[in-house]
User: Which sequence fits this backbone?
């Protein structure tokens, strides 16, 4: 083989090596993304399971708190943590949807919180207190924005303006 042919073969081998390296990198990135998505599902499912267990463990407090009934101080603290956990879980699910990890309607989760606020005076009162604790007065949230809290406020305003009678079934509080 002459030098020109040898050089062409060497260049083909070099180009093939680069292409194979790039294909390997793409393959590794896909595996990493799939692993991250699986871990995200696992973490979210664990959070959902933990929240459901907490509600089940404190079902009387959850029920009375949602309905706005009188709670003892320790029960009120438990209810506050449950509402906070509920909002944080819904925000996490909303973020997953908006990053494309979960294919579902991103409006589901803020509308569930808004619906609970509209139906359950106790949930609404604790939600407002939770938002204040987190440093955001619900009165200052622009309901025309695009964030999670803005969507909650938009749905809440829409529920308040509708003539639809929502029956406060405690089984749906926070959902």
Assistant:
């Amino acid at each position: 083989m002459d030098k020109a042919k040898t050089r062409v073969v060497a260049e083909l081998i070099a180009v093939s090596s680069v292409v194979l390296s790039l294909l390997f990198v793409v393959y590794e990135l896909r595996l990493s993304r799939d692993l991250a998505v699986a871990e995200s599902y696992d973490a979210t499912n664990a959070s959902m399971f933990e929240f459901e267990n907490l509600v089940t463990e404190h079902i009387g407090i959850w029920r009375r708190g949602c309905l706005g009934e009188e709670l003892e101080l320790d029960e009120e603290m438990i209810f506050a943590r449950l509402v906070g956990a509920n909002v944080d879980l819904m925000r996490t699910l909303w973020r997953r949807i908006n990053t494309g990890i979960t294919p579902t309607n991103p409006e589901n989760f803020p509308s569930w919180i808004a619906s609970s606020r509209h139906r359950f005076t106790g949930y609404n009162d604790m939600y407002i207190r939770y938002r204040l604790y987190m440093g955001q007065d619900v009165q200052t949230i622009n309901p025309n924005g695009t964030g999670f809290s803005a969507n909650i406020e938009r749905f809440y305003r829409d529920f308040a303006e509708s003539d639809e009678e929502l029956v406060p079934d405690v089984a749906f509080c926070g959902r």
Summary: Helices lie at 3-57, 59-67, 73-98, 108-119, 121-133, 148-161.
